[in-house]
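Supplementary Methods, section 5.1.

A reviewer requested that the exact input to the structure prediction be made available. We therefore reproduce it here, unchanged from the version used in the analyses.
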Amino acid sequence: MKNFIHSKNMILLIVLLATFTSSLFGTYHSYIPHTLMQPDNKTEVRAYWSGDEFHHVLHDENGYTMVRNPKDGWLCWAEHDKVADEIISTGYRVNEYIPGMLGIEKGVNISEEKYQSIRQPYDEVFEQHTVRTPATGEVNSIVIFINFAVDDSCATHGPIDNCRNCVGARDFEHSYEFYKEFLNGPASGSSDPDESLKQYIKEISYHNLTLNSHIITDNTDPNNIVFAYRAVHPSDYYRPYDDALRPRNLIGYLDRTERDARCFELFYSALEWVSDHIDPSIDVDL
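The structure derived from this sequence is encoded token-by-token as follows.
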């Protein structure tokens, strides 16, 4: 499916399918473009992410893996520590060395066993607490837009539409019609799976499942303005703690347990907020 919006440190779009199909859980994506900055705040590195929500790697267009050096925060070419089964830095900065000339291997990654050990706890929770949606038929989902607090001055305001010194919850780069088309497809009814989420779901379910995505809007406004939940914390709060990055992220989570707790709090708060804004005529598949 085509790439979506990347709005710097401000907006996150979450398509919350009230229930998930197993085929969508752990979906692998490859070569998602991403631009990073080296600690000198001058050197840009154009890279790609490949993987799923459990584990993903950063690499260049030729498949050479890169990782930040924990000593100084610089992106370096990576190698595999076979003893610890981890991706580690070689110390060779990506903007200064050609990996092939150093004898560095392409596709450096953890083993399948390590990947499964990372994924297993989430699979167990998924099996215990998630009600499966039908693999066929029609499913309605609610889409929640989330605005993160820009800085600490916004953090006490909570889910509001406007915040002094913050980007307003309604200030999105694109219109309601743009998001509607991205999710549900163009009015022309194109069957191209790259055209929308709806067509993508149809494609991977062999046309057995139809997903209808509903966006929360201001029905009293003639422009159908998109409503969004205002997160209490900045987006860095939901990223890993890192003292080596420039700029540093000192409010990030320290481990997986803390990450899961923060994400759960965010999702739960967003769901509480959206429950008051859902059109009662929509038969949401909970």
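Confidence is low (pLDDT under 50) at residues 1-24, 151-171. These observations are discussed further in the main text.
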